[in-house]
Amino acid sequence: MRASQTVAAGLQALSLSVSLAFAGAAAAADDGPWPTAGWTVATPASQGMDPAELARLVELGATHQLDSLLVVRHGRIVVEAYYAPFRPGLRHAVNSVTKAVMGTLAGIAIEEGKLRLDDRVFDDATDPRRAAVTVAHLLDMTSGIDWTEPLNDRGKPVSLIEMERARDWAAYVRGRPMAQAPGAGFNYNSGNSQLLSALLARRTGGDLRAYAAERLFEPLGIVDLRWRQDPQGLPVGGFGLALQPRDMAKIGQLYLRGGRWEDRQLLPAAWVARNLAATVEMKDLGTPGFFYANGWWTLPARRIYMAMGHNGQGIVVLPEADAVAVFTSTRAAPVPLLIERILRSVKAGGAVADDAAAQAALEAAVARATAEKPSEVGPVPEAARQRLAGRTWRFASNPIGLRSLRLELDPANPHYEVVTAARAPGGADERFTAPIGLDGLFRTSPAGGPMPVVATRGRWSDARSFDVEARILGEPLRTRYLLRLRDDGTEGIDLVFSNSYGFQAEMRAEAP
Predict the structure, then answer these.
(1) What's the angle, vertex CA 253, arms to CA 252 and CA 255, rounded to 5?
(2) Residue 505: phi, psi to the nearest 5?
(3) Is the dihedral of CA 41, 45, 49, 55 positive or negative?
(4) Is 501 helix (H, G, I), strand (E, B) or coil?
(5) Sheet with 443-444, side-by-side order of all strands
(6) pLDDT score of 199 more than 70
(7) In this predicted model, what pLDDT tens digit does every residue of 23-46 receive, in sequence order?
(8) What does the DSSP 8-state code read for residue 178?
(9) pTM as predicted
(10) Does an H or E element contain 209, and which?
């Protein structure tokens, strides 16, 4: 079962009595302080939430290896945890949460008269089904374009992979045949979002990133972001955004406040309301009750909607609780359990007595999340260390583009250097050097340069095998390199590469 299907089943099972126990509790709350320049932090009790329940929420995040967890109520952060080695101030790839941002930009452009829901997507279509595809179909995943990107366990995202390999992504999507009439049913399709990106760029002056900055990000005070581009320089519509968790929460807060931000209506209130009035059922999930609108997943019966991204990225809007939750991860997040804990923490009437012990327990849970837990480290096989370290191991052509690897395992300054093949034809190979932890703890490369922040640790798993775990902080991906010295009388090494997406490759290097 794919992560998205598990999330859907769990959320559908949430008790309606729990989710509505505090109905109306938010009605009396004011907007709270606007977080444009920075969030205000408050104790949970002061905002009508139980710190003991939130401590259990933080512990749940640790159990399921989240990178971050943040809850806002009445416009104030009541709990915020960053799980080592991830840390505050770093962007995180949000994957398909990007679709909700694209939906937001579409709503702004429609309000400005630059776009209409009934605008046709294909100007030169001869197929009447293709000619009938509109912007609304792209937003709601009902375009009818033939596309394989299942949200359940029925296979690989074949069409998405092919789009990423194409020279022109939007052209690839436009060239797909029609599988059904537009509006006939839901079919998850990141290609729809790429067509929307291309259309929005044309209608808003050609530079969609500049439009997004002026109309959305800058008014919210979001200045630290990364947005991947396709080969034509268009922002990737279906994924590709990286945001800090606090900035993800701002997007949720914009929706919670009906599209209003301070004294401006950035997004039409009717556009926000469309989420809870969604009519397109997400039948691909195999779980009834889920609907889709404008890039958001919606449970209208539960009064909950969310922007969801692969491998555990999410913005959850809880209007009845006047709350927003954000989480990031490198694997499927336990979204139903997280939401249930949040709902349980909200107390009817909004009054919670100060409890110093419960608040201390919450603060201790956050501190434990921040502190990295070392992996086991056994004795170092000195002879193997001398054979492996201090040599540049060169690899033949391989699926991950690894040219060479050099390990320096002196405990005083352990580090490594990798050289990978150029990403573009005619480009130069890329060289990356970073520290490596040998004591069971990650060591992190410096932040602020052109290269990503990488956390790495290594250990000897037996007398001939060195196991390296590496994480690009803020990417929902874990990688492992298992290097094994040969025992057949030769001086080469075998390397097995694997990652949390299930990809694995084996390669060999001969002695330098």
Answers:
(1) 70
(2) -145, 145
(3) positive
(4) coil
(5) 430-435, 415-420, 402-408, 392-395, 504-510, 493-499, 478-485, 465-472, 454-462, 443-444
(6) yes
(7) 444 444 567 899 999 999 999 999
(8) B
(9) 0.91
(10) helix 208-212
